[in-house]
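Per-residue structure
===
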Amino acid sequence: MSKKIVVVGGVAGGASTAARVRRLDEHAEIIMFERGPHVSFSNCSLPFHLSGIVENSNQLIVMNPQRFKKQYNIEARVNSEVIAINRNNKSITVKDLATDKTYEEAYDKLILSPGANPIVPNLPGIDRPHVFTVRNVVDIEKLNAYVKQNKVKHVSVIGGGFIGVEVAENLRLAGLDVALIEFSEQIMAPFDYDMAQILHKEMIDQGVDLNVNDGLAKVEENHIELQSGKTVNTDAVVLAIGVKPETNLAKNAGLEIGETGGIKVDHNYLTNDSNIYAVGDAIEVYHQLTHQPTRLALAGPAQRQARAAADHIYRIPHQYKGVIGSSCIHVFEQNAASTGLNEKDAQRAGIKYDFVYIMPNDKVGLMPNSHPLHFKLIYEYPTGKILGAQAIGKGNVDKRIDVIAAMITMGGTLEDLKELELCYSPMFGTAKDVVNLAALVALNRLNGEFKQVPVTKVRELIENNAFIIDVREKHEYEKGHLKNAVNIPLSELRDRLGEIPQDKPVYVHCRSSQRSYNAVMALQQLGYTNIYNISGSFLGICLFEYYNDHVTGRDKIVTAYNFK
């Protein structure tokens, strides 16, 4: 007897589950319900319609009900809201939004993929007609139409996560004045504060009015008011504060909800009802590194969950590893990617860790379009187990982060990463790739070969009049340097040892930490015991200090920035 599979939700998780079931069972009856007018649309691509990168909103729709039926023999019912699950008789109650009539549909197996809803705070003016959210194609069409029809010039985007940053970027590319408001101290939470400063600089360099450590308080007709009291002129507001899993249907049916607020599932994505599965943004998942439940609203994991759930229906086993959280984003001229744990994550999880921050070129320097790649590698101390990485630059950051994601998934260590053999051509990378170099530097740290301080501590060093050596050449020093740094070029170091004290800590930097590392190693072998390399060096310091210098007007610790 053929199975009847019913799917609630027709985007990444739901549509993928339905398609996998069909591949496994040509005889199954498959019905997919979607509350909105579209199924299987590219929600990750929605912001790019605002700039015209995706010119026609119809391009966002990957599959329509007619094609689902013809190609896969899957019945996709749009504008159909599932309002109840009747577990006792294995059916759902559906409301046809076109006719306002309700009916019941039986199932043998039910897959829930309701996704997540944008968070809409209860604030004055939040229901004004010029306030928008971005969840589906209809939302992005409404926003885009409003911008064009009302000749909008100023837009305020609330929230500095993936959607907020991408909406802000694409509206700016469309020629609008954009303010981005983020409640926490930085945009893009997967990145540590030091790395996020590179993205902060990029945003303001591209003309975005970036406001961090501030939140929305009130929406007025022509402006918004922030919690700090600041007002921002605006013609439209986009809420991108975050999302919350859509669990009402599951809760009302008595399905178990996890401690993070997502639908609780087992390793086969089965709920506490043996006939009901759940996948996608609405579920709670297991983090491979912290060993704690978490939520992860990303399309890649949703696709894997969909396949695993469908496979389990047909008794096909799979190995559940949990999630690590790999993501990437394009921010104007910078690419950014991360995987695994950042420092904040490791601290919250109580994991002892260390990190290295390097910035080699992403390809051989004499090749066209060679640029610095800012790379931060986090590892467990003292095991050397790789915990996470972040990369920002104009080149292929995703390639490097994908390598680290693979290493984490396989339980890799710094030794494994050091020995990893990767492809090489001067047009694509360097013979010692960024990830290999990071492993080498990290192993030196792990083995106690040298001491370091991060760029986050340099302002404190300057204020305490620490002894800092700048080992760049004189012409580099003259273009901008730390205010109290002494210029002793690496090429002159051995002849000027008399200028370097041995009775107090000495901090060494260059442009990117490579020459300073060589200086530190030389000085240690010459008898100096209290030497520190400044991780990130002058380029990293300039990037870290720039945004806060810009918005606060505080005293600079550099005579001039130099980002070259």
